[in-house]
Amino acid sequence: MRSDIAFESLGETCRGWLYRPEGAPQNAPAIVMSHGFSAVKEQGLDGFARGFRDAGFVVLAFDYRFLGSSSGSPRGRIIPHEQHDDNRAALAWLSVQPGVDPARIGIWGSSYSGGHALFLGAMDPRAKVVVAQVPAIHTAQSLISMVGREGFNGYLELLAQDHAARNAGQPGAEIPVVAPEGEPSVLTTADSYAWFSASGAKDAPTWLNHTSLESVARLAEYWPAAFIDLISPKPLLIQAASQDTLIPIEQVRAAFARAGEPKKLEEYPGGHFDLYPGEPFHEPALASATGWFKKYL
Fold this sequence. Notes:
By secondary structure, the chain is α/β, with parallel strands linked by helices. Helix content is 38%, strand content 20%. The strands form two sheets. Strands 1-2-4-3-5-6-9-10 form an eight-stranded mixed β-sheet, sandwiched between helices. Strands 7-8 form a two-stranded antiparallel sheet.
């Protein structure tokens, strides 16, 4: 029902889990899944993947290069276009697996990978249906919402200094993904620290609480929803959290307004992490995403 798999992505090995439903037809629909900024598959993807599998989908959940059980050095590197290419490699690998209908593959992403799902939904014809859970929309604006414009300007100074050092042949600097309040980190909200600390300690020994300043620079200049209007006529479901302190709901609403039909926006009255397994809105979010995939795949 769940097996360990691996596929190649530009010279590195991405590792993941493949789920097959019992009694699946010869040409079953399928879903590619990946996690948010720095997160690995053990941090909640299984709960979603099992639900999709039980509804009749073949499901691939994987770790990006440089993260989790996948290969690549330096560890903790998080570059959007590289993660796009890992998703493309996942789509290609899944499309040739026995029992998978390559014309019926959807993409699901959460948080940072929710943003990737928006991007790839617009740019990769193999992704036929898009579900983006609490997706990154405009990451510079999200950083500003967390640290203020003055804090963001300080970030840019730090990133410029890091680039100059790397350009001179020195090693790049690192920063924690999360940290206690008042300490430097990428995701500065209290619920980010609580969720990553709990899920990493409990379920994900491969999760690393650091990334490079180069990765933060690429995050700051990434606009995942830039091409959201190009997803149509593919069906798009966005599941947002109205009290999200990482991705303000106003960003999501503005991006959704630019998307074409068919589309649906769901707003859950909770925070960014409240749609994950064990949290208040996991079951309704899973049921809705499953229904969306069943309707359109």
